[in-house]
Amino acid sequence: MPTALIQGASRGIGLQFCRALVSRGTKVVACCRDPSNAESLRNVQSQHPGLVDIVQLDVTSETAIQHAVQHVQDAHAGKLELLINSSGILSPTRKGETSLKEVTLKGLKETFAVNALGPLMMAKYFSPILMAGEGTIGKQAADPKRQHAAVLVNMSARVGSIGDNRLGGWYSYRMSKSALNMATKNLSIELGRGRKKIVCVALHPGTVDTDLSRPYHKNVPKGKLFSQEQSINYLLSVIDDVSITDTGKFYAWDGSEIPY
Ligand SMILES: NC(=O)c1ccc[n+]([C@@H]2O[C@H](COP(=O)([O-])OP(=O)(O)OC[C@H]3O[C@@H](n4cnc5c(N)ncnc54)[C@H](OP(=O)(O)O)[C@@H]3O)[C@@H](O)[C@H]2O)c1
Questions:
Q1: Domain ranges of the chain
Q2: Which terminal CB of the chain, N or C, has fewer other CB atoms within 10 Å?
Q3: Number of other residues whose CB lies within 10 A of the CB of residue 142
Q4: Which of 104-108, 211-215, 228-232 is predicted with the least confidence, judged by mean pLDDT?
Q5: 217 CB-contact burial (10 Å; exposed 0-12 / middle 13-18 / buried 19+)
Q6: Is 195 exposed, middle or buried (0-12, 13-18, 19+ CB in 10 A)?
Q7: Ligand 1 atom having least distance to the Cα of 33
Q8: Ligand 1 centroid, distance to 194 Cα (angstroms)
């Protein structure tokens, strides 16, 4: 049975990944900043006894990441087959950050910390644990000659694509997701060299009905707003289909490649 770690599991896409993975029998280490406030996640845990292990983790804290690694060493035999970095913030302020005059250094730093720097630190500390994985997620899961030990997913966003940027705005969010994409590409090179390879991909989930996108739903064309279930079903199909030849790529929910 594979084990997955979801970072940013209290709400939205991370929480739905937990629901979908446990419903197919995958053990989930569900990381969130404040487990006492993560009621929906605790409900998933009580509905699937023995499958959900909730671990406190603020992705901006290196110490918290190290504690989570120690926990996986002790409680999950020090191995994982899937890690999903799902934490994200769209805007450092409630008002949004659509133009240059709204950009602040504090907001940029906060957004980068959650969206790009934290996920990279997760990769740094969890890569030995992913290398110990058994490769039972991905296209080659059933192939004894599979070339990967685990899959690392960074939840990105199409707006992080430099080539696809036609509208501008959202400086912190776009820049942090571009940085996350660069981290994903770099990781794919370094973690694809050894005998125990890790498939690293960045994914765009579509526009999904979550707290993050809620203030902007009125601008989403009819039929283009995915439910969380819809988006995660699509994303799991993409994850189930990756192999080492796909490492370093940026995929949308429908499996199409997005230019960096
Ligand atoms: N929804 C969309 O349409 C959409 C589109 C493209 C990309 N994405 C990406 O998909 C990912 C998930 O987004 P979502 O829509 O599910 O957002 P969401 O519903 O707002 O959830 C955001 C998650 O990030 C967590 N988080 C924030 N700061 C954190 C920190 N310092 N440490 C750990 N966790 C932290 C939140 O935890 P708390 O509960 O503790 O705040 C929450 O679990 C993000 O990376 C986002 O950029 C979403």
A1: 3-252
A2: N
A3: 9
A4: 211-215
A5: exposed
A6: exposed
A7: 40
A8: 32
